[in-house]
Amino acid sequence: MKICIWLIIFLQSGYKEILLPITTTDRKAIHTVEITQIGKFGIVRKARTNIPQHLHTGIDIKRPNENYINEYIYPITSGVVISKRTDGPYAQLIIEHNKEGELFWTVYEHIAGIEVELYQPVKPNLPIARFFNHKELNTHGWQFDHFHFEVLKKRPISIRSTQSNPERLFTSYTLSCFTENQLQQHFYDPLVFLDEQM
Questions:
Q1: How many CB atoms lie within 10 A of CB 72?
Q2: CB-CB contact of 197 with 28 (8 Å)
Q3: Structural domains in the chain (count)
Q4: Tens digits of per-residue pLDDT, 19-54?
Q5: What is the 3-state secondary structure (H, E, C) of the chain?
Q6: Which of 45, 114, 137, 179 has its CA 20 to 30 A from that of 146?
Q7: Is the pLDDT of residue 72 over 60?
Q8: Residue 116 is part of which domain span?
């Protein structure tokens, strides 16, 4: 019943404007987004333990301010949370959006302080999470002083939830894009997508 109510709200809310997912002086100014050195879309990520070499399917957005307490992350537009993962440095939200009858999905990963529930409608003026604080970075590693952001063309992969992550219902194609063709089939370049939509 709860899912149906949120779905109705989502369908009625329609498509709204697109804004940057971070706090800046102008959330429509794409030039204010800074990407980490190895965080560009489509670059080759080398193989490491249990992770094959793959193309980077999103962008790694740097913390926009020196706020290490509550630097918020926002959805880029209205949508509904369809998956919620809460395990430490890999915490993730996947949001489904409806643009005039066409669906697309956004992924927010390496996030903390998640403020939304599964199936909850979201709007771009309210935060969904935040960047890691000092304590979390000291625990998980300072390589996570960013968040990973993706825009998917295709519905994420449905997965079976686990006892440790009961609300994780979907996963992205993050580690399964090995060719440029696969990358383009599944993902938009987030910076190009944002620039064209704002």
A1: 17
A2: no
A3: 1
A4: 999 999 999 999 999 999 999 999 999 988 888 899
A5: CHHHHHHHHHHHHCCCCCCCCECCCCCCCHHHCCECCCCCCCCEECCECCECCEECCCEEEECCCCCCCCCEECCCCCEEEEEEECCHHHCEEEEEEEECCEEEEEEEECCECCCCCCCCEECCCCCCEECCCHHHHHHHCHHHCEEEEEEECCCCEECCCCCCCCCCCEECCCCCCCCHHHHHHHEECHHHHHHHHC
A6: 179
A7: yes
A8: 2-197
CATH number at residue 120: 2.70.70.10
Structure tokens at 130: 């935040």
Which residue bears the tokens 């625990």?
Answer: 139
